[in-house]
Amino acid sequence: MEKKDTVKDTLISLGISVGIILIIFIGLYIYSGNWPPLTIIESSSMQHGNEFTWGVINTGDIVIPKKVNSVNEIITYVEGREINFKTYGDYGNVILYYPQPGSVPVIHRAIFYVTWDGPFFHIRNETKAGSWLEIIGYKVVILNMGFSGRNLVVDLSRFIGEDGFITMGDNNLANSNYMDPNVIYPNIAYYAADQNVGIAPRPITLGMIYGVAAGWLPWFGDIKLILTGQTSDIPTMSYVYLGITITLILVIFAIYDYWPRKER
Predict the structure, then answer these.
(1) Rounded to an integer, what distance in angstroms lies between the CA atom of residue 155 and that of residue 137?
(2) 123 neighbors 139 (Cβ within 8 angstroms)
(3) What is the C-alpha separation between 93 and 2, in angstroms, rounded?
(4) Would you list the domain boundaries of the chain?
(5) Measured on CA atoms in the order 9, 10, 12, 17, is the torsion positive or negative?
(6) Most buried in the list 16, 29, 124, 161, measured by CB within 10 Å?
C-alpha cells in the first residue's frame, strides 16, 4: 500500500470518528434540551456507600440533565415511595440545580415539594403518603429512609412563605451528624437536607433547576477527574471498570485495523 493511500485512509477514519461524535452530541442536546448535555459527577454525595454501586450515581459517572418545564414533571422521593417509582437506587427523581446564581450545579434527589398556605406548609401528595411521613409543626419527618435506613428531619421554619423542592444527597443522610436537638421522634433523627445544612439557602424553584438526571454512563468521567487531580472520591472499582472498558475499546480498534489490511 502506498503512503499516500495510508494517509488518506487515516484522514477518512478521523473524519468519520469526528462526525460520529458530533452526531452523538447533537442527539444528546436534542434529547436533553441543555448544553452541555452531559455532566460529570465530582463528589460522592449520591453514592450508596464508599464503593462503586451499579445503577447508582457514583463519583466519576456521567449523567444527562434533561430540561423540565414544570415542577410537576419531577417525581419526589415522597411521591415515588408511595407508587414504588425509583431512579438511581432510591425513590423519586434526581435533579441538577443551581443553589445560587453563578454557582456550580448540585446533583441531589428531590425529597418533597413544599408549598406555603399560611399558617401551614403542605407537602405535595402528602395525603397519599404512608405512616412513614409525619409533619410536626414546621418539621417534616421521614422514617426509615434511604440505603442507610435513617430517619430524616427537615426544619421548614426558616422558609415561611416559600415554595419549592427540598433536596438531599443519598449519601449525605448516611453520613450526617446533624441530629435533631429536640428529639422530636423516639428514634435517632438526622438533619441532612440541603436546605438545613448549608448546601442550598432555600427550597429549589423551577428557575433554579438545570435538569432531571435522565441518563447514566458509568466511570468515564474518571478521565477528567484524574487529569484535574480530583481523585479523592473516586471508588476503587471505578478505576478497574474504566481500565477494562478502555482495554476492550483498544482491542476492538486493533482487530478492526488488522483484518482489512490482511484482506488486501
Answers:
(1) 9
(2) no
(3) 56
(4) 1-32, 33-263
(5) positive
(6) 124
The string of DSSP letters for the chain reads --HHHHHHHHHHHHHHHHHHHHHHHHHHHHHH--SS--EE--SSTT-SSSS--TTS--TT-EEEEE--SSGGGPPPHHHHHHHT-EETTEES-EEEE-SSTTSPPEEEEEEEEEEEETTEEEETTGGG--TTEEEETTEEEEEEETTTTEEEEEE-GGGTT--EEEEE-HHHHHT--EE-TT--SSS-EEE--TTTTTS-SSPBPGGGEEEEEEEEE-STTHHHHHHTT--TT--HHHHHHHHHHHHHHHHHHHHHHHHHHHH-
Confidence of residue 102 (pLDDT cuts 50, 70, 90): confident
Could you give the CA distance from residue 222 to residue 235 in angstroms, rounded to a whole number?
Answer: 10
Q: Is the pLDDT of residue 186 over 50?
A: yes
In this model, does residue 4 exceed pLDDT 60?
no
Sign for the pseudo-dihedral over CA of 195, 170, 116, 142: negative
